[in-house]
Structure formats: C-alpha cells, structure tokens
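[09:14] KT: can someone run the structure on this one? pasting the chain below
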Amino acid sequence: MSGAVDVLLARLPHGEGLPAPARATEGAAGYDLASADDVDLAPGERVLVRTGFAIALPAGFECQLRPRSGLALRHGITLPNTPATIDSDYRGELQVALVNLGREPFRVTRGMRIAQMVVARVEAVAFRAVDELPPTPRGTGGFGSTGR
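[09:31] RB: done, structure tokens below
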C-alpha cells in the first residue's frame, strides 16, 4: 500500500496466533481488532478486553477505537468511551473497554472481532486568548440548535 503510515506492532505472548489488525474491505476506514480473552458480559456490565499487542504510532497521529456496528446493532455491545483515543506516546497493550447495553448476556471469545481501530492525523494547536470571538450565523446555539 503506497503512502501508508508506518505503525509498529509488538505482539505480546498472550496474543500469539491472533490476527493483526486488518481492514475487512479495501475501502474500510477501520482495522478490526480481535479479543485475546474469553469474557462473559452480563447486561449492563463493562469489561476491559486485551488485544494481545501494543503499537507505536508516529508523532502527529492518534489511534481511535470504535464499536463494530454489527455487535452494537445485534447485541448492544459497544464502547462506553467511544471513540477511545490512543496517543502516539503510549506503548502499553491496546485494550478495549466494552459494555453490554443489550438485554442478554454476551460471550466474547478469543479471536472474535470486538472493535475497530482508525489511525488519524492530529494537528498541534496554539491557543491564543482573545477578549471576543468572531461572530458566526450559529453563534452560541448549542445542543439541537441546528435542527429547529
């Protein structure tokens, strides 16, 4: 893949045999992440699931962890902190916080695709204090203000 961002991946001992993050289709934005654990989630329960690997992102990038739409729709399995952000200076194991918002218990099995990972560029910003912000047509309209 030409122009790909180089992300280093270190497989941990409990991640042996698991697939590396991969896109399901060429046009997919997210790379599927597999579980390194077998876990039962009761309705309403949250759990941290290991992936069996760590990554090193280049400076100026972040990794976002997002729910898989099929798990969310069919079973109510999602991420309570979506999107979860992995910073470029983090070197620990990638872990996925899952929550069961469904009505039935759900079993996560080793190797099951549980989340997707999107690598994105992050811009550094410099905040400049001002007495007043420039006006816009929206102004201070907040939650739901554009849907009226």
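[09:33] KT: thanks! The two ends are 45 Å apart (CA to CA).
[09:34] RB: yep, looked fine to me
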